[in-house]
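#structure-requests
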Amino acid sequence: MTKTVGDLRNEIRRAVGRFERPESTAFTKESLAAICDAVGYDIDTSDLPSKSRMRAGVLWTVGVLEDDDPGEAERPFRKSELEAIAAELGDDA
């Protein structure tokens, strides 16, 4: 059975120690910060960057984007991007 976007988001949340959401919602800044940490993208956790900056950093780190330009990640992750993140996080995701 194919995983839904909501399933993928919750698997990623579990993998980075965040709480699951009963409905499919985009990641909060705090969840994005945890994902950045898990994939090795360095951010200032005392002053979180924008969501688009963190999404771009995650996508760049997992090899989906060629750089961490926030202009390339102004929308929530797409299913293929969530699959790449989950794969990067390994068996926990």
